[in-house]
Design goal:
This protein is mainly beta. The protein is 10% helix and 17% strand. The chain has a domain of 44 residues. The longest helix is centred in the first third of the chain and has 9 residues. The radius of gyration is 21 Å and the shape is elongated. The structure holds zinc ion.
Length: 94
């Protein structure tokens, strides 16, 4: 018997995740993303993972070894050369 019972909890708001986004979260790593950027460090070029934006140590791997993003190398010859340095965190837009 506790007269000062805590106020009723506010119902927890559900995260606003739409179904397409949820599906996308599940499948995005399985869909090959084209490698479109190449970063030059001291003369050597490193391709940039389109999933996490980090340069990859190895080329022509099927998956990024950091984030697991599946990679599409068909357009690698046309990859844009980008400068190293702080990058704006590219949030993936849905
Ligand atoms: Zn990655």
């Amino acid at each position: 018997m506790n007269p000062s019972s805590p106020p009723p909890k506010a119902p927890q708001a559900l995260p606003q995740v739409s179904i397409p986004r949820f599906i996308w979260m599940l499948i995005r790593f399985r869909i090959p993303m084209p490698v479109t950027e190449r970063m030059i460090f001291s003369g050597a070029g490193f391709y940039v993972c389109p999933g996490c934006g980090i340069t990859m140590e190895r080329e022509f791997v099927n998956f990024c070894d950091r984030c697991g993003q599946r990679l599409d190398w068909r357009g690698y010859k046309k990859a844009k050369v980008v400068e190293p340095g702080p990058r704006i965190n590219r949030s993936i837009t849905f």
